[in-house]
Amino acid sequence: MDFLTLFAIYVAVVLTCILLVCKYSGQQQNPFDTLLSYVSKKLAPFTPQWLQKVSHWTLHRLFHQRNNSFICLHILLEGAVYAEFTYEVFGFCREMDTTVTSLSVPYVLLVIKTIFFYLCIKTDPGTVTKKKLSNQLHIYSYDRRLFHPGVSCPTCQLVKPARSKHCRVCNRCVQRFDHHCVWVNNCIGARNTRYFLLYLLSVCAMAGDIALLTGDMLLHAVLRSGLLRASYIDEHGQQQPAGPLFVVQHLFMTFPRIVFMLGFLIFIFFLLAGYALFHSYLALINQTSNEWYKSRGYFFQHCHPTAAADHLSSPIPDHSKRHYYSRGALRNLGEIFFPLRGIQKKSN
Ligand SMILES: *[C@@H]1O[C@H](CO)[C@@H](O)[C@H](O)[C@H]1NC(C)=O
Ligand SMILES: [Zn+2]
Ligand SMILES: [Zn+2]
Predict the structure, then answer these.
(1) How far is residue 238's CA from residue 209's CA, in Å, rounded to a whole number?
(2) pLDDT tens sequence across 114-143
(3) Does the C-beta of 344 come closer than 6 Å to ligand 1?
(4) Is 167 left (phi over 0), alpha (psi -120 to 50) or beta?
(5) Nearest-ligand number for the alpha carbon of 162
(6) DSSP, residue by residue, 65-78
(7) What pLDDT is stored for residue 323 in this prediction?
(8) Is residue 181 annotated as part of the catalytic site, yes or no?
(9) pLDDT of residue 297
(10) What pTM was estimated for this model as a whole?
């Protein structure tokens, strides 16, 4: 296989991954789970019992129990990128006359990101407890559409406040539940959605900034090498100008680690930017991803033309309108950055 085919396969695989993850991230019943259980079922007759047990146990430990493995993976990947940046790109950039100020931006972003990452991990997302329950019940009112009054959580044995959900991984009910994030090993709920948003945005900024600096460095390297004006003799003895693919190939050969890192950063950047945009949008319309998926299910179940007839007489508000909770983007954002407390509500 020649270089071009390999490169095309690489790009295609990366793009497919981006699309799949963007489409299904956060969904409870995602095709990855389905595919995984399908594959393991098909492979079951050919794999020894102990291997099945070990893989089942590993997957269970990784995704269905609280653990720090994704935090470690995150720190490892980040460490690898920053080591590569510091030991290779930094030096090259200095040679290319990039200012120290712009080269220090990634480190400042790293500090900012680490603070939000830490806060996201350490903040209690808003666990529903017996002691706080009477307060928590009054924060949001039941819409009688997605959340109904008087429903108890069978595991916690507590009445569920509106917008809360039981997290199966952490085994607790969480206020204004958004989702359980394995990367921070915590639920995202009323009290840490703000940190989660800022964390996402700062990781995007970090990846984007390092990618820009690296891209700039590679561009300078290409310009300096004069490759764009170079030409080669093809098999017919004709002189051909070296095209962009030739340049890409040359970069791969000369700076393999840097080009690989750049590819990784671009991948991460687009992935997280999509995710951050989705979460910012949800924040602006006063919805959690839990409600987003729930109301989609509701929409398809109840607003399908055939099902609609049964609901004509019911007193449910207009549920074809997806964001009827919203009281304006600014107020919605305000509620994320200054989460409501039950006591506040009582006083007004
Ligand atoms: C957000 O939605 C909830 C209902 O889910 C509502 O009680 C609350 O007042 C809304 N907040 C804003 C700022 O619109
Ligand atoms: Zn519960
Ligand atoms: Zn959780």
Answers:
(1) 42
(2) 999 999 999 999 999 999 898 889 889 898
(3) no
(4) beta
(5) 1
(6) S--SHHHHHHHHHH
(7) 52
(8) yes
(9) 65
(10) 0.80
Contact 138, 346 (CB under 8 A): yes
For the chain, which residues make up each domain, given as ranges? 1-65, 69-311+323-348
88 contact partners, CB below 8 Å, separation of at least 6? 255, 257, 258
Phi-psi region of 212 (alpha: psi -120 to 50; beta: other; left: phi over 0): alpha
Backbone Cα Rg of the chain: 25
**Helix (H) or strand (E) run with residue 165 in it:** strand 165-167
- Please tell me the distance from the alpha carbon of residue 230 to that of residue 164, in angstroms, as a whole number: 63
120, 181, 187, 204: the catalytic one is 181
DSSP-based helix, strand, coil % in the chain, nearest 5? 65, 5, 30
Pocket of ligand 1 contains residue 140 by CB under 6 Å:
yes
d(CA 198, CA 272): 12
Listed residue (136, 135, 121, 118) closest to 170, CA to CA: 121
The answer to whether residues 326 and 285 touch, using CB atoms and an 8 Å cutoff, is yes
For the Cβ of 172 lying below 6 angstroms from any atom of ligand 1, the answer is no
Instruction: Give the tens place of pLDDT for each residue, 32-66.
Output: 667 777 887 788 788 788 888 888 788 777 778 88
Residue segments in the chain with a per-residue pLDDT below the cut of 50:
303-320, 344-348
Which residues are placed with Cβ below 5 angstroms of ligand 2, an ion?
Answer: 153, 155-156, 166, 173
Amino acid making up residue 263: G
CB 168 within 8 A of CB 189: no
